[in-house]
Amino acid sequence: MSDLLKQLEAMAVQAEAELATATTSDSSEAWYRQYLGRTGEMTTALRGLGQLSREERPVVGKAANQIKQRLEAALQERQDAIRQAEMEAALSAEGVDVTLPGRSQNVGRIHPSNATLREISQIFGQMGFQVYDAPEVETDETNFTLLNMPDGHPARDMWDTFYTTTPGVILRTHTSPGQIHAMRDYCPQPIRVILPGKCYRHEDVTARSEMMFHQVEGLVVGRNITFSDLKGTLVNFVNQMFGEGRSLRFRKSYFPFTEPSVEVDVDCVLCGGSGCRVCKYTGWLEILGAGMVNPVVLQNGGYDPSQFSGFAFGMGPERIAMLKHGVDDIRYFFTNDVRFLERVG
Ligand code: DAH
Fold first, then answer.
1. Who has the most CB within 10 Å: 3, 14, 74, 311?
2. What's residue 217's pLDDT?
3. Ligand 1 — pocket residues by CB below 6 A?
4. What percent of the chain stands above pLDDT 90?
5. Are 53 and 184 found together in one domain?
6. Looking at 91-165, which runs of residues are DSSP E strands?
7. 127 CA to middle of ligand 1, Å?
8. How far apart are the CA of 217 and the centre of ligand 1, in A?
9. How far apart are CA 173 and CA 167, in angstroms?
10. Which residue's alpha carbon is at the smallest distance from atom 6 of ligand 1?
11. Is residue 293 part of a domain?
12. Whose CA is nearest to atom 12 of ligand 1?
């Protein structure tokens, strides 16, 4: 073997031993520069090939090349191993513990008042009622006068009203003025609508009353509409809302916009009628007011009372939700305590 080859082989053995101790990308690159780089020992030694005789050169050259390729392959293998080790070290340092419990996301949900409103709308929707939107800012005329309560009528005292600085403009105290809007809109067509929305009353806020709450008004106008239609509609509604087999009680009452007028009770959903704190030991829960639309109101809406008749009702979804879910304070609905909002509705 030529001296050059011996020298190269010895250098390679030493280089391989050193490479085995390189454990980082930096040290493997330093090794490359030391042996195989442009000014590396191996590269420099290979230049000695030029001094060999014509006969020796191809043989030694070939063998020298193989040594060089052997070192290059060894470097490649070493670098792959280093890269793999470095990646594993980085991953375990970042430390994703897949056994930790996940962080739960808070999921929003429909407000209990709206959930009840939707439920009511759905039940009446099945009976062919459409939803009619009416304004919350009303006139004294529509909220009272056209509902058969002219100025000074004592029944106006049933509602404590928020007046605005504009004369005659008020916040509606109930959804009933929507009846006038719907009638004037539909006349002379028959009507079957519910009118859900907010109402405002200038009242002390207590467990039983709020300044702002929701109502759902119902209005049916047509030919030959009778009290039986009202009764059938409400029986169907109550059985769907509170469960099949409920008892209903119609008590005579007074509202200026209906004649005759009733208040409707359902047998107490908590005690089943035997008497408890919620039904105040009467066995009954009042859920809505209703009646046959007063002829004066029909006329104010544009209908001829000798041709048309109708029924109307008004209920409070918060009250209905309270009865259904055993909530004893209406203020929970509007104080936004998440513990309440998550449980009811
Ligand atoms: N507007 C009434 C109230 O707020 C409720 C009501 C009673 C509505 C009888 C009606 C009805 O449509 O017929 O107290």
1. 311
2. 98
3. 174, 176, 217, 255, 258, 289-291, 312-314
4. 65
5. no
6. 130-131, 137-139
7. 20
8. 7
9. 16
10. 314
11. yes
12. 313
Residues 73 and 188 in one domain: no
d(CA 79, ligand 1 centre) in Å: 85
Which tokens in the block code for residue 173? 């105290």
193 Cα: distance to centroid of ligand 1 (angstroms): 15
Candidate from 129, 175, 252, 255 with most ligand 1 atoms within 8 A of CB, to mutate:
255
**Same domain assignment for residues 148 and 272:** yes
Range of the domain at 35: 3-94
**Shortest-distance atom of ligand 1 to CA 174:** 4
Residue to probe by mutation, ligand 1, list 208, 217, 233, most atoms within 8 Å of CB: 217
Is the pTM value of this prediction over 0.85? no
Residue 173 has pLDDT above 90, yes or no: yes
Residue with the two structure tokens 């929970």:
332
State the residue for tokens 């009290």. 227
Closest to 318 measured CA to CA, from 291, 345, 300? 345
The token pair at 137 is 């800012």
DSSP 163: B
Say which residues have a Cβ less than 8 Å from residue 4's Cβ, sequence separation at least 6: 45, 48, 49, 52, 60, 64
214-237 pLDDT tens trace: 999 999 999 999 999 999 999 999
- Total domain count, the chain: 2
